[in-house]
Amino acid sequence: MAIFIGFSLTVPEAATAATRVECTASRETVRRLIVYEVVSFSFFLFSSLIAQSLKLAINLINNMDPTDPHKADIDPDLLKYGLFGSAVGSVVGCLFLMLSIVDFIQVKLGVYSCGGKPIYALVTLVGFVGSALLVYASTAVYASFFVERATPDDD
């Protein structure tokens, strides 16, 4: 959202910090940036709606009979695949958001072939976001597929 607002308030002459004409990003880069923003927002919305649906299902089951000792007895496959679907939506949304920021850096600071600050920003972005995505994705896969549901006999 911040990128959309930034574009709408940017004066065309001050759209980039690039000092040379050959370092200015093309119109295609700007178009691609907007497409990546929309796609990333779509995946984040998908992820959020799946997670909200799981939360709603758990809350509905919990409120059906408050004296029931088996609260939130939700189908484990539904929960497993719902969590996995939500995590996939988040990861893909993050990837497209990162791609849009890659293009945003080129629009605001200059193309990567000119070197300098755009490269530093790119390396920082990919390093930190990439490592965080690896941690999140591995944790989500572990939580979705390798954590078994506890049964009453386990106590």
From TrEMBL:
Keywords: Membrane, Transmembrane, Transmembrane helix
Transmembrane segments: 33-58, 78-99, 119-147
Domain of life: Eukaryota
Key word Membrane present: yes
PANTHER family: MATERNAL EFFECT EMBRYO ARREST PROTEIN
Record protein name field: CASP-like protein
